[in-house]
Write a structure and sequence with these properties.
The chain has about 150 residues and is α+β, with helices and mostly antiparallel strands. It is built from two helices and eight strands, in the order H-E-E-H-E-E-E-E-E-E. It has a single domain, classed as Cyclophilin, CATH 2.40.100.
Length: about 150
């Protein structure tokens, strides 16, 4: 009987450790792009290049159109692309183009390109991507796992 009580107490002692481990969820990294009255939220993937991009924020950037399918802006430094997934650009894709060191935000589907790595996806405000042009601010979204943009 003492043996069973000892086992039960041991299991009761371990249960909180396992339940917190099982419940611990990684909150995805999110960034917000602000331009005039437009707000776009991007959920980043779990690659090291996405985390390195996130660590650069906040950033003031100058956005311009490129190839009639994407908006681009340049970063202050090139990022490492060790484990980044290659991008298959579709509307809403946030990607890093390693050869030029720029970020691309696609508003149309485009062909994959060597050196283009997906770092995230627009989860709110994708309808504004095509209209982005000029100065914008990128910031981290911290402390919440789901962000709804003001309209």
């Amino acid at each position: 009987m003492k043996r069973y009580i000892g086992i039960a107490l041991f299991i009761l002692f371990l249960m909180p450790l396992f339940s917190s481990w099982a419940q611990e969820e990684k909150t995805p990294l999110q960034v917000i792009l602000k331009m005039d009255n437009k707000f776009l939220v991007f959920r980043l993937n779990d690659s090291s290049v996405a985390k390195e991009f996130y660590d650069l924020l906040p950033l003031d950037v100058s956005i311009k159109d490129f190839a009639g399918k994407e908006k681009i802006f340049y970063l202050p430094k090139k990022l490492q692309t060790l484990d980044a997934p290659e991008a298959k650009p579709r509307a809403g894709t946030l990607a890093y183009y390693a050869p030029w060191g720029n970020i691309a935000i696609f508003y149309e589907e485009a062909d994959a390109a060597s050196g283009l790595y997906e770092i995230g996806l627009c989860v709110s405000g994708a309808e504004y991507i095509k209209d982005l042009e000029g100065e914008a601010r990128l910031e981290k979204v911290e402390g919440i796992s789901c962000f709804v943009c003001p309209r």
